[in-house]
């Protein structure tokens, strides 16, 4: 059975690759220094009296493949659903907010980085702080008065991309919905006016 051994070795190699790829909890493409450079660029743009907030994608429904929003991934490399990133221009510090560990999610997706992994997330991303979503209360994202005034809060106004979506596609669909709503209002107005003032 000379052909069986190579076949068994090939199956074992495929299983090992599948196990190692599913075990990866964080991307391996960008080191912390890359994120620090990206954050510095944001800080330079927003100035010393502003904060910037990026929101990650929500938890995917059903069997949809999870996909982090472009901005949250660009700034952190994290794929954890409900990730928030706060870049504080006053202190030039970055805080990442993550949900607590979700054991139900991890049973289906494998290990997911959470607020319980603070030290590991700080090491992987280079963030100054990692906090739980529960800490986003009170004066968040303004912080305490001792940190100084915030004159501007920068957030994205366009929708975040999901699985198999693009920013262009989402913006265009929102514009189409707005046009349809406007036309519907116009038709109702014309109908109402024509019944109130019949043409003779």
Provide an overview of this structure.
The protein has 200 residues and is of the alpha/beta class. It folds into 2 domains: 25-158, Creatine Amidinohydrolase, Chain A, domain 1; 166-200. 44% of the residues lie in helices and 12% in strands. It has helices at 4-23, 32-46, 70-76, 103-109, 118-125, 167-196; strands spanning 50-55, 84-88, 93-98, 129-132, 152-154. It has a 5-stranded mixed β-sheet. The longest helix is centred in the C-terminal third of the chain and has 30 residues, at 167-196. The N and C termini lie far apart (96 Å). Residues 15-23 have low confidence and may be disordered.
Strand tally: 5
CATH domain fold name of the largest domain: Creatine Amidinohydrolase, Chain A, domain 1
- The proportion of residues forming helix, as a percent range, comes to 40-55%
Compute the average pLDDT: 80
- As laid out across the biggest beta sheet, the strand order is 4-3-2-1-5
* Order of helix and strand elements from N to C terminus: HHEHEEHHEEH
Beta content comes to 5-15%
Distance between the termini: 96 Å
Q: Count the domains.
A: 2
Give the CATH architecture of the largest domain: 3-Layer(aba) Sandwich
Low-pLDDT stretches are 15-23
Number of helical runs?
Answer: 6
Structural class: alpha/beta
């Amino acid at each position: 059975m000379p052909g069986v051994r190579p076949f068994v070795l090939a199956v074992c190699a495929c299983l090992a690759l599948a196990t190692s790829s599913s075990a990866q909890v964080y991307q391996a493409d960008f080191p912390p220094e890359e994120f620090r450079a990206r954050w510095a660029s944001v800080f330079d743009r927003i100035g010393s009296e502003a904060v910037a907030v990026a929101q990650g994608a929500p938890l995917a429904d059903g069997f949809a493949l999870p996909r982090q929003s472009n901005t949250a991934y660009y700034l952190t490399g994290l794929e954890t659903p409900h990730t928030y990133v706060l870049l504080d221009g006053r202190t030039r510090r970055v805080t990442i907010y993550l949900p607590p560990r979700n054991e139900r999610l991890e049973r289906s997706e494998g290990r997911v980085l959470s607020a319980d992994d603070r030290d590991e997330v700080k090491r992987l991303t280079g963030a100054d702080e990692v906090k739980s979503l529960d800490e986003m209360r009170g004066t968040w994202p303004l912080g305490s008065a001792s940190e100084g005034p915030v004159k501007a809060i920068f957030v994205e106004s366009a929708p975040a991309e999901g699985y198999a979506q693009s920013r262009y596609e989402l913006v265009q669909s929102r514009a189409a919905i707005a046009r349809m709503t406007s036309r519907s209002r116009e038709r109702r107005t014309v109908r109402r006016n024509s019944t109130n003032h019949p043409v003779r």
